[in-house]
Amino acid sequence: MDVITRDWMTARQPDGADARLARILSFVDDQGGVVRSSALRARGFSDRAVRAAVDGGMLERLRRVWIALPGADPELKAAASDGVILTCVTQARRRGVWTLPATERHVAVPAHSAHIEAAGHLHWGAPVVPRHPHALVDPIENVLCLAATCQPFETALAMWESAIRHELVSTSALATLPLPARARALLDAATPFADSGLETIFRIRLAWLRVPIRIQIWISGHRVDTLVGDRLIVQIDGGHHVGAQRTSDIRHDAELMLMGYHVIRVGYEQIIHRWHEVQDLVMGAIARGLHQAGE
């Protein structure tokens, strides 16, 4: 609920019309700040009371059939205004799933919709999990299935593994769904171990080496991002590896090297934009046998 509306409800001891307005605002807030007019009517709120709230600036009307709090989530308000559902990488980001930065909004078009004019990438396919007619966001199962066909395999797999690791969905639950072939292949490849999408991408891109690559292994009291073979550790730095974290990382790298491990540390920019540098480093280390345990 936006600050102005919350302050109004806190400052007053509503009765009569004010009490009715307070109940309307509370219901809209409970529904995420954006709700269909029909849901308000089904709850027992009259069109007249809702219209009074809109006229008084306490609510906004979107596309005739949606009502929103003025301070509601802008993405939800935009979806309601456009008559679409947030999905794929857009909704994945909103749920905390790892994604690459997206330059456009990804939305699904509801079944039996008329012509839609909305900015972004439109997904027209039938959902795996049915969508409620009042939904503005897709369930995580639909998000992942659409990403399976929309994104490159490695990027989609990173999203699937992130959602599984964050316990937004389980592999066992996904396995019971009628998944399309591409989604089924992602489910077969997914593991719950990667701590970030970068680790997933690293593992997939180097699978051709046919050297064991293990993710999130505990060594010397710390987790390492990737262990290639027996002795080659590749640490993948995200944006949080600064300050005290960076100091801790350097200390742990030194401990690992004293234990006989070879450590390579790479960052986001290298993985995503300069992959050849990462691949050359790993191939060079393997050619020198640095991934193998000593005699």
Q: What does this protein look like?
A:
This is DUF559 domain-containing protein. The chain is of the alpha+beta class. It has three domains: 3-73; 83-189, no CATH class; 197-287, VSR Endonuclease (Endonuclease, Chain A, 3-Layer(aba) Sandwich), CATH 3.40.960. The chain contains 14 helices and ten strands. It has a four-stranded mixed beta sheet with strand order 7-8-9-10, with helices on both faces. Strands 1-3-2 form a three-stranded antiparallel beta sheet. A three-stranded mixed beta sheet has the order 4-5-6. Helix 6 packs across helix 7 (140-150), helix 7 runs antiparallel to helix 8 (153-165) and helix 8 (153-165) crosses helix 11. The longest helix has 16 residues, at 243-258.
Short description:
This protein has 295 residues and is α+β, with helices and mostly antiparallel strands.
Q: Count all strands and give the number.
A: 10
Distance between the termini: 65 Å
User: What count of domains describes the coordinates?
Assistant: 3
Number of helices: 14
Poorly predicted runs: none
User: Main sheet?
Assistant: 4 strands, mixed
Strand order of the largest sheet: 7-8-9-10
Q: How much β-strand is present in the residues?
A: 5-15%
State the helicity in percent bands.
Answer: 40-55%
Radius of gyration: 25 Å
N-to-C SSE string, H for helix and E for strand: HHEHHEEHEHEEHHHHHEEEHEHH
Outline, from the CA principal axes?
A: elongated
Q: What structural class do helix, strand and pairing data support?
A: alpha+beta
Mean pLDDT over all positions = 90
